[in-house]
Amino acid sequence: MGCSWLLILGLIQIVAHSLEIQGSGEEPIPVIAHNVTGVLEEDVYLSCEYQGSAQINKAEWKRRISSSKFKRLAGFSNGELFSRGDFSKPDSPTNLTVRMKVSSVEAEGEYICEFQEEEENPFGSVFVTVIAKPDIRIEVNSETINDTHYQLVSCSAVGGRPIPQISWLVGGRPPSDFPFTVNESKTLHSNGTSTLISTLRFPTHLQDEESVICVVKHETLPNPKSTTANVETYGKLISAAFESL
Ligand SMILES: *[C@@H]1O[C@H](CO)[C@@H](O)[C@H](O)[C@H]1NC(C)=O
Ligand SMILES: *[C@@H]1O[C@H](CO)[C@@H](O)[C@H](O)[C@H]1NC(C)=O
Ligand SMILES: *[C@@H]1O[C@H](CO)[C@@H](O)[C@H](O)[C@H]1NC(C)=O
Ligand SMILES: *[C@@H]1O[C@H](CO)[C@@H](O)[C@H](O)[C@H]1NC(C)=O
Ligand SMILES: *[C@@H]1O[C@H](CO)[C@@H](O)[C@H](O)[C@H]1NC(C)=O
């Protein structure tokens, strides 16, 4: 009798233990990967590490090119590390950290890293966001309409991604409505970048400051970038007029 009680107790413990295992839910995926942002024409690191303990027979980075097709990019296969195109060889079969050159905006998207164990294929996913540093240019032009001389200062942020923000400072302050006008135009290029041109326009006879500043804000710039343009002032305009008399 005492023996069978022990048996029942033992059975209860076994059942409780197996319930506990089931209750702990799915095994966490033993793969660590993080999303990254890459700058166009620079390098970015895609990192993916296998944290499990099983033997890895095969491992690879791949990208989906259609619903059923993948492109293999770098990894470990037939006992060797491999890579192609813009990718470097990974560190090891369990550390698929690779360097990728961001050669075009098409590099943006999801990358899958997959490991082949005996039984399972644990995988991770990394989303790469591509940004591009704009070239900043500034230029001063003038026009005379109905005897009024105007200056137009154009500040261009060429080939940025995403589109940058441009603002102006005149005498250390944002230009007030009058007599300044600001016009913006945006162009989207086929390479996935954009150009933003902001034009500050004012009548020269109402301008006291000898320079204006264009401020460009963008993800690729740690601080907003200021560019100064020298402009003509009312004083200069008058002395030039006297000289020509
Ligand atoms: C994985 O490889 C990268 C690049 O070589 C290295 O920086 C990183 O420390 C490695 N991770 C581990 C856990 O060894
Ligand atoms: C990575 O980026 C993708 C796409 O933007 C997003 O759906 C996912 O939640 C991100 N993952 C992490 C861990 O931030
Ligand atoms: C220039 O003067 C003409 C005649 O007074 C006027 O019709 C026109 O609107 C003016 N143009 C501008 C840009 O102010
Ligand atoms: C993208 O195209 C624009 C316009 O043609 C060009 O100015 C810019 O340099 C290009 N950017 C890259 C990274 O090729
Ligand atoms: C702003 O730009 C648009 C398009 O280039 C032009 O039609 C408009 O006249 C400009 N406005 C000013 C105030 O310069």
TrEMBL record:
Keyword set includes Transmembrane helix: yes
InterPro entries given in the database record: CD80_C2-set, Ig-like_dom, Ig-like_dom_sf, Ig-like_fold, Ig_sub, Ig_V-set, Nectin/Nectin-like
Recorded family membership: Belongs to the nectin family.
Membrane topology: Single-pass membrane protein
Domain of life of the organism encoding this protein: Eukaryota
Domain Ig-like: from-to ranges: 30-129, 134-232
Name of the protein this chain belongs to: Ig-like domain-containing protein
Keywords: Cell adhesion, Disulfide bond, Glycoprotein, Membrane, Repeat, Signal, Transmembrane, Transmembrane helix
Keyword Signal: yes
Subcellular location: Membrane
Gene3D superfamilies: Immunoglobulins (2.60.40.10)
Signal peptide bounds: 1-18
Species this chain originates from: Xenotaenia resolanae
Lineage: Eukaryota, Metazoa, Chordata, Craniata, Vertebrata
Family annotation (Pfam families): C2-set_2, V-set
Primary localization class, coarse: membrane
